[in-house]
Amino acid sequence: MKAQVPEPAALLQAPGLWRRMACWLYEGMLMFGVVFIAGYLFGTLSQTRNALDNRTALQAFLFVVFGIYFTWFWSKGQTLAMKTWHIRVVDRAGRPVSQAKAFVRYLLSWLWFLPPLVLVAPLQLPAGESFVLLLGWVAVWAIASRFHPQSQFWHDALAGTRLVTALPRIR
Questions:
Q1: Which residue ranges traverse the bilayer (predicted)?
Q2: Cα–Cα distance between 28 and 155 in angstroms, integer?
């Protein structure tokens, strides 16, 4: 196995915020397929007949499936959406991330959703208000990357990872 050579500093530039958010939205669309297959598998194996039965177990199962999905792809450098938008996840030095670091990034990436979800439960907000709260938080979290010295998302800074432009390789 060849030793991984870090990327030159010029290639460690963060992609623009709009491109990262477009990738994020595309990733969300692709996750519908993962959720469908995982939900079908869970429902079949658990013999769930009603969507509200085993709801907490299904959510825990999806959390694990998402963790496996993102940890595996990020340790390889890119998800399909990231490949499409020419974005790669690397460590601070520009090297590929380990599975452990990719898992930490996965856990910290829940900062995109956890704060508004924690507020929604006790306040028992209707779906529309919950959605607006979630969208507002996502916008705040995304814009906060402008205050990071390398324009990285804060969960990346905390995980010791960074998103960089991944130009296609010419053969």
A1: 21-42, 57-75, 102-121, 127-144
A2: 18
